[in-house]
Amino acid sequence: MRDVNTRRCVLPLVVLAVTATCLSGCAHNTAPPGWHPPALVALRSTHGGWIRVEGTVLIEGELIAIDQSAFHVLTQSGFQSVPRASVRRITLTGYGNRARTIALWSALGGASALSHGFYSLFTGPTWAVGGIVASLKEKHASIWHDADVAFRFARFPQGLPPGFNPRTLGALPDMAARGQ
Q1: Position 86 confidence tier, pLDDT thresholds 50, 70, 90
Q2: SS percent in the chain: helix, strand, coil, step 5
Q3: What totals of helices (H) and strands (E) does the chain contain, helices first?
Q4: Could you state, in order of their start, the residue ranges of all structural domains in the chain?
């Protein structure tokens, strides 16, 4: 009889933990779906990270370079430079993350706690807390708001090369055609 009562108490906790873990992986990522490759692929890519520059204007696209005076971004309409003085906030996505995968494994682990009987009172919340913390950490691991870090994800991390002609870049390709 005790086992039935334990399961009745634990089931709502596990459902809550699984739901919270799954929802913790739902982060708002400013990059379009074709623009966040896995970290190892991003290391070898010649493209910059995806940046959203908010200020007097809103610009999104590939980060080409950052220098003392401006953020240089390749957008779908072409190369644009945004003066640093007009920027309020930047959001840079350097690579894709695995927050949803972590949330899924945490949810499965939380569901497996049902088989632990009385001990599921301890293992269920442990899976929930661990999964939520891990998912949240991973979700934010590839997103920065600091220009001192963002330059590392630029196509030209040292700044624009001497004699650089922005017309050689053209415009940002359609995200659907880019692929992973």
Answers
A1: very high
A2: 50, 20, 30
A3: 6, 6
A4: 2-160
